[in-house]
């Protein structure tokens, strides 16, 4: 018999991440490598265990193989438990029926049986594709104090940015009276972070009601939250004042990696009180040859550096050859930049090869904003070949 849990977390990790282009051609967005040794999903999983939440359902759908293998039994995050722990929850056939998750709310609806095994008082709904550190226990405490049906984490953004987000309009006590999805003329700057705490009895009621509505898009932001506000439920905004970043675009992914290279980095990966856990790749120590130059960069285990690395992130198993230059770039696991090649303002996919004297991208100072060159996973850029600034390469290029 399963023991009763005060709280269960449901982590939505099935998104395609189409705005990341070739980087999500073979993997789901939460499985994208980040910051030298992590995956994006490591931050949410680490937040859970650091917050005292030991029961997590991970809802996968798009390209789940690598993500499922990476999470495994949950051991790196102390989620390999007999009572609770982590469970992978893909769509499945129920009786003679089966369907893909139709939206974020439908994904939770299809997995209500998993939640009910633990008979929780509260359910935390999370996304697997944001970079941040957050103590969910403080948000749950706020939820309890307010006797709320639903609490939504919000981040104050600039008025210019507000139209890109779901915006919460609140009374002085932070009770939400109106939710606006990407409003053209926002009344508030309280943007939803996609982090929700629900009282389970209320969530179960509204999920069931939503599923019975044939016109619903089965989405939390578009359907569940507005229905609760309109139903005069106690829905509150919980203000978060830390670092949070949606890395759903090439530019935001690049920026988030580069921000970690600054001395005053907005997110501290070295804080022993709030560690970010990850599956260890078990690579040997990194090696820097005589004559190698490494400046303001992250160079992780298993890398071999013979050339120059400046303001860049080189993931485990990476290789930078003699007289090669990597500048303002991200080189994902197992990628090789061979002798004399130049990589600037770029992202190089996993296990790709930038051959001798090839060139990818252009100096950041000479590019328009966002003109980041991207080479997809397991590709070859041939000897002497050039990949232009802003280009997204999804096939081998052996000859010009």
Outline of the structure:
This protein is α/β, with parallel strands linked by helices and 400 residues long.
What does this structure look like?
The mean pLDDT is about 95. The protein has a seven-stranded mixed sheet with strand order 5-4-1-8-13-10-14. Strands 16-19-22-25-28-31 form a six-stranded parallel sheet, with no helix packed on it. Strands 17-20-23-26-29-32 form a six-stranded parallel sheet, with no helix packed on it. The longest helix is centred in the middle third of the chain and has 12 residues, at about 200-210. The chain is elongated. It has about 400 residues and is α/β, with parallel strands linked by helices. The chain is built from eight helices and 33 strands. This is Glucose-1-phosphate adenylyltransferase.
Approximate shape: elongated
What is the overall pLDDT average?
Answer: 93
Cα end-to-end separation: 64 Å
Please indicate the percent range of residues in DSSP E strands (runs of 2 or more): 25-35%
SS-based class: alpha/beta
What is the β-strand count? Answer: 33
Instruction: Figure out the total of helices.
Output: 8
Strand order of the largest sheet: 5-4-1-8-13-10-14
Instruction: Pick out the low-confidence regions.
Output: none
The profile of the biggest β sheet is:
7 strands, mixed
Radius of gyration: 22 Å
Could you estimate the helical fraction of the residues in percent?
A: 10-25%
